[in-house]
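Incident log, structure service

09:12 report received: a user says their structure output differs between two submissions of the same chain.
09:20 pulled the input from the user's history:
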Amino acid sequence: MPKSVADTADTTTVSALPSADAPPRHRWWILAVIGVAQLMVVLDGTIVNIALPSAQKDLGFSDGDRQWVVTAYALAFGSLLLLGGRIADLFGRKMTFLVGLVGFAGASALGGAATGFEMLIVARAAQGLFGALLAPAALSLLTTTFTDARERAKAFGVYGAIAGAGGAIGLLLGGVLTEHLNWRWTLYVNLAFAAVAFVGGVLLLQRTTRDKTTTLDIPGAVLVGGGLFCIVYGFANAESHDWSSPQTWGFLVAGAVLLTVFTWWQTRSTHPLLPLRVLLDRNRGASFLSVLITGVGMFGVFLFLTYYLQQSLGYTPIKTGLAFLPMVAGLMVASTLASTALIPRFGPKPVVPLGMGLSAAAMVWLTGLDLSSSYATDILPPLVLAGFGLGLVMAPAMSLATAGVAAEDSGAASAAVNTMQQVGGSLGTALLNTLFASSVTNYLDGRNPKDPAVLAQASLHGYSTAYWWSAVFFVTGFVISVLLYRRGAPVQDPDAAPVVHM
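09:34 re-ran on a clean worker, output below:
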């Protein structure tokens, strides 16, 4: 799922050392303010998904274009997170936090008022941009606000719970707002969250000293952002232009070149966005790849299963949101089990491949869905299995992706792992949507496209294709995690700062 399952989706890790000053008097109120802002960012990974069929019908965009409503947000958020943490250091955390809130609210208002597809996409990209400012600043503020080790553990526990539950809340809230108001309110609702967090932030947050030594790696940000965009856009273009078109392979080649140059530039830059030493440990490298692959497989499932439930089975938006909750529950149970019992005892080598295997099996199971499938016997079991598998992958991979990094690299490592999740989601949504659309077109070839029964079967054929490809990605993840992860439980540093992911 996006974000919380995903998503759990968008969170920076904290390893910065706390301030030696006395803790702020209103620190628990500050936690509430930061929690509201975090909830808003996490919600947006899932709340719009439930509303997407209604938005598509209202604004009249094509099946090939609908992916951009999800991808524009995830791609902007993921590609700019690396820069967002540096900006918070340079301009001050309070200022960055408040600017992120105002910008996110403004972008949400623009999206809610969208009169066409292009306006909605611009708004979603702007949400991602301001979310990339907001998330690292919020986490940094939490680190400096709670200086007592016991209080910090409690605060991060609350923050982590918000991050974990946010995706589920988004699914339900998206269903309620779409059904009882309309899809636009899944965006307008952010104004209420932002207003509460902004007023609280202005009143309670202390101005932080700016780190004058920090410099922004603008060339690095341009290279990685441009490279990721070109790759996602190339995959998306394959649906309308075919794989042999220069507008497909040209963008894919350009993206690969830009990312190669970005890798070279990170070895030359004095303040690199992503120091390459972060990626070179075997467990960390395996974790980054696992998070990327899980993002590819997971985001696509949410998109296609949402359309299947609403358009093929006639579910209401609220019923669709409720239908996903067992998957979220499975994910949270498995994440807790993996973090507290399995990884400390067995290490990642058996646990992450098991999660990949269960997720692949769930995807294969979903390929059998048809117009007469029942929720209890045909949809619920693979959903729970997928949630459990994703939980076994995401919790260990997110944790090990930042374990053992040097203090000066902790911000870059945490931003990078969240970037991997968002970029995986962007790639998965673009690629799977293209494969879906091609499959539907091939199915309709020689059949009557105006026959509703034929169209319904064509959609089922497309969904099945997307699930098969998701299974292929998870099998790839299985092989990579078996080969790369080290045997044995990871050694934990007892003095390490608390780490939180979304």
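09:41 both user submissions now match this output. Likely a transient worker issue. Closing.
09:42 reviewer note: Residues 410-444 form the longest helix (35 residues). The chain has two domains: 27-216+271-484, 217-270.
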